[in-house]
Amino acid sequence: MNDPAAEEPTEAAAPVCPRHPDRVSYVRCQRCGRPACPECQRPAAVGVQCVDCVRESQRAAPRVRTVFGGSASSAAVNGRPIVTLSIIGLCVVSWLLQLVTGGRWTELLWFWPWGGVDEPWRFLTASFLHSTSPLHILFNMYALWITGQFLEPLLGRWRFGVLCLLSAVGGSVAVLLLAGDPATSDAWWTRVVGASGMVFGLFGAMLPVMRRLGRSTGQVLVLLAVNGAIGFYVPNIAWQAHLGGLVTGALVATAYAYAPKDRRSVVAWVVPLAGVVLLVGLAVWRYSSVGVL
Q1: What are 169-203's pLDDT values in tens digits?
Q2: What is the number of other CB atoms lying within 10 angstroms of the CB of residue 74?
Q3: Architecture in CATH for domain 82-289
Q4: Where in this chain does the record put each Peptidase S54 rhomboid domain (predicted)?
Q5: Of the candidates 19, 22, 130, 159, which lies 20 to 30 Å from 112 by C-alpha distance?
């Protein structure tokens, strides 16, 4: 005899998200067919995919690189140049600290040729300081943003970061090299602050990068001429830092732009090492030539 209760259909269990079993989801991934809750859904060309399938497809996808060897997929996050924004953020925070500490933060990090002997970090840290006038930091941050959002995606985060840091140090080294005779020149005691050396390094980098892309460099040259002239005619501007950053940035970018395709990874490591050795060597030579070392 048949059991009527056994013939009654049982209700099927509601589908749940594999990553969140406490969440019911009737939406399924178009790739693997598993349920995906709203948190685990990602828009696809047709329907949605789960986060696991999206991650797997990204891992399997070929890594696209720019003509300069930078990773096109990692050069920016959500379309934003994160190294550029990070440097701008550091400069802004540093400027606020300059204001609230009554200049003590500035004294700790600014650069002057005599100070770099015993406190070499000043060759770099001075680039993250600015005068108390908002115009100084506003101009430098605007120039950094304009050039950075163009160069960083092309070069990649690592190469762009190296370019910025070496240009900053190159500007300070140029101030040291062009300081004149320490017995008669006040430049050895003149304090220098500002990201101008770094910014001019990015200006200089634009030249080989634009040439490598086959684009005109006319606008960049005009920009350099105007800003370079300002350094000579406006007082309290360290044109030496501008020149040092410009030369350093141009050399670094040239190495990156014209590196052979099969040697780009090697060049990416050689450039920062060679740059540090060269800049440190020039500083040591200069200090030795005046009897400091």
Answers
A1: 999 999 999 998 888 889 999 999 999 999 999 99
A2: 14
A3: Up-down Bundle (1.20)
A4: 119-256
A5: 159
